[in-house]
Amino acid sequence: MNEAQDLLGTVAAALGPGGADAVDPVEAAARVAWSTVVEPGDAVAGLLVQVLGAERSFALVRAAVDDGPRNLLDACADRQVPGAESPGSFARTLRVALERWGPRLGRVDVLTTLAAAGTVGARLVVPGTAAWPAGVRSEERRGGKEGGPMCRSPCAAVE
Q: What would the mean pLDDT of 128-135 be, rounded to a whole number?
């Protein structure tokens, strides 16, 4: 088995019975990665995940730290991320966020994080899984996006 298969297997196991059928394990892994980089309630990260998706936003952020924010800014403008209509101020907001996240990005290890959670019997809970809190799910029924503004950060939790 290769590292990607190991990761997906570990994510599926952490999601528990039915979890890997309910959500994309790659998106779930990206949410775990985000949760190791940002503080709870990080509105910028939450917005990126909500609009671009966890996997795509995380990849764009990693690339932006190394290569500059141009592709991230373009993706945000293309997907009409709120705030991107004001390119100057949005670029400043992203630069500050990238500076905040940059030091942690090099230390992301989803396998290790999930292995540590597994040693205490924790289970991964992300939007779309049955264990995702009903109060947060109800936000979607009110017109919000599950894991959206109420969450304010790339939501992944352990149970």
A: 83
73, 86 Cβ separation under 8 angstroms: no
Contact call for residues 11 and 112 (beta carbons, < 8 A): no
Residue 82 and residue 132 in contact, taking contact as beta carbons nearer than 8 Å:
no
Assess contact for 52 and 58: CB atoms under 8 A: no
pLDDT (tens digit per residue) in 18-63:
888 899 999 999 999 999 999 988 999 999 999 999 999 999 999 9
Burial grade of 118 (CB within 10 A; 0-12, 13-18, 19 or more): middle
Q: Both ends of the chain: CA-CA distance in Å?
A: 28
Backbone angles phi, psi at 81, to 5 degrees: -60, 130
DSSP letters for 65-131: HHH-SHHHHHHHHHTT-TTTTSHHHHHHHHHHHHHHHHHHHTT--HHHHHHHHHHTT--EE-TTSTT
Q: Give the helix/strand (H/E) hosting 157.
A: strand 157-158
pTM of the model: 0.83
Coil/strand/helix, residue 99: helix
